């Protein structure tokens, strides 16, 4: 699959047996943080394609000069909701009108890296163009990428040189896992849903959410999925009285919320570097005090200065006047689950317009604003009722695929 793009530069498909160590070397060189500042490092545990391999279709490319790998890029393709349209049951029936999802094939770019000593030579641009060619060959209609809002170099490459437009601004919310258990309101019941029940609720109630994956069943049945959990007011339903998803949705309680949990710890670990000795000491002291006096419920800082795993909450949704309260209870439940699994943080990503975000506990110092940039790859659309997705207005919610975290 190689193609010579210049006298010395070749872009080809990644070979796990031949390229793994050289790719890891480039990854480490690209994650050298600024002097005196905190930096986040990723250890992919010997699997450079771990962040795309669970997607329906994926590819990793490397850029090579001689025997040296100088860059890489990862991409995947899936079918997601890009809008919704009205549907009527029956030709003359105007009473049973509902919204149904409109799907499109969308590609996602992540993990673009260029060795520091080879930058500003057009390598990143060539990797993007080659990946987009694979996207088009596989009938993707749109391509998008995500980066932090202050990553100006990446934003400039994609918007100025690759034709992408700034599209969505979701928030990444991160909360530490303390040495004590989080309190879950005694007025809320948490019910664990089977993958099939969770799929039914998602397809029936959340399928018109932007970026909702049509293969939601593959995600819910993946070994990395720890479960889907429903928060309900006490006295409505319990695990013993659960009537099934169909009856539940036909007669739901006044308020409820649900979330699924993905275990990234089995795929990769993170590590914070560049912290001063004072910060490390203060963090360790907070943990020691928290363990010794758990009833005080002190907000201790976990050990983020060694490799750690985290749990990712996705598919967050719900309704009712106490929806935020239900989400808060779910977050407490997931915190305790993460504590049992040995994870150090719980993270999620939600739309900046998401009303349920006010129930999600998070530390501002660990959280950030994300930027998604989108590009239309072809002239044809899967459904004319949507038009150009890149020009659409953001909705209240967004579905973040845990396979791409």
TrEMBL record:
What InterPro entries would the database entry show?
Acyl_CoA_acyltransferase, GNAT_dom, Plant_NAT
N-acetyltransferase domain sequence ranges: 9-183
GO molecular function list: acyltransferase activity, transferring groups other than amino-acyl groups
Q: Does the keyword Acyltransferase apply?
A: yes
The UniProt entry's GO biological process terms, in alphabetical order, are:
auxin-activated signaling pathway
Per the UniProt record, one Pfam family is Acetyltransf_1
Give the protein name, as stated in the record: N-acetyltransferase domain-containing protein
**Organism encoding this protein:** Glycine max
Keywords, ordered alphabetically: Acyltransferase, Transferase
Q: Report the PROSITE patterns cross-referenced here.
A: GNAT
Task: Give the family from UniProt.
Answer: Belongs to the acetyltransferase family.
């Amino acid at each position: 699959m190689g193609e010579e793009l210049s006298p010395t530069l070749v872009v080809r498909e990644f070979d796990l047996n031949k390229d793994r160590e050289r790719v890891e070397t480039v990854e480490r060189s690209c994650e050298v943080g600024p002097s005196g500042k905190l930096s986040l490092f990723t250890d992919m545990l010997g699997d450079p394609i771990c962040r795309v391999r669970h997607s329906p279709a994926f590819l990793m490319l490397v850029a090579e000069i001689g025997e040296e790998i100088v860059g890489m890029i990862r991409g995947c393709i899936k079918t997601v909701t890009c809008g919704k349209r009205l549907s009527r049951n029956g030709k003359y029936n105007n009473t049973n009108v509902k919204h149904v999802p409109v799907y499109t094939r969308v590609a996602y770019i992540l993990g673009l890296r260029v060795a520091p000593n080879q930058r500003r030579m057009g390598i990143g641009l060539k990797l993007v163009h080659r990946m987009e060619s694979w996207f088009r060959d596989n009938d993707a209609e749109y391509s998008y990428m995500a980066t932090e809002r202050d990553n100006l170099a990446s934003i400039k490459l994609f918007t100025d040189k690759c034709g992408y437009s700034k599209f969505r601004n979701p928030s990444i919310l991160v909360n530490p896992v303390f040495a004590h258990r989080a309190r879950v309101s005694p007025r809320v019941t948490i019910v664990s849903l089977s993958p099939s029940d969770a799929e039914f609720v998602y397809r029936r109630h959340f399928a018109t959410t932007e970026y909702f994956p049509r293969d939601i069943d593959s995600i819910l049945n993946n070994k990395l999925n720890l479960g889907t959990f429903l928060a309900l007011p006490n006295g409505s339903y319990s695990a013993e009285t659960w009537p099934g998803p169909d009856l539940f949705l036909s007669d739901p309680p006044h308020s409820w919320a649900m979330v699924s949990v993905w275990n990234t710890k089995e795929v990769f670990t993170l590590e914070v570097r560049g912290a001063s000795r004072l910060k490390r000491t203060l963090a360790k002291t907070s943990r020691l005090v928290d363990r010794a006096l758990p009833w005080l419920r002190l907000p201790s800082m976990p050990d983020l200065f060694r490799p750690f795993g985290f749990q990712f909450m996705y598919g967050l949704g719900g309704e009712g006047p106490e929806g935020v309260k239900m989400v808060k209870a779910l977050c407490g439940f997931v915190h305790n689950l993460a504590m049992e699994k040995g994870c150090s943080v719980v993270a999620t990503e939600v739309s900046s317009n998401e009303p349920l975000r006010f129930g999600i506990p998070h530390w501002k110092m660990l959280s950030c604003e994300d930027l998604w940039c989108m590009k239309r790859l072809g002239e044809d659309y899967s459904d004319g009722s949507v038009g150009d997705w890149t020009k659409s207005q953001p909705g209240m919610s967004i579905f973040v695929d845990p396979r791409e975290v």
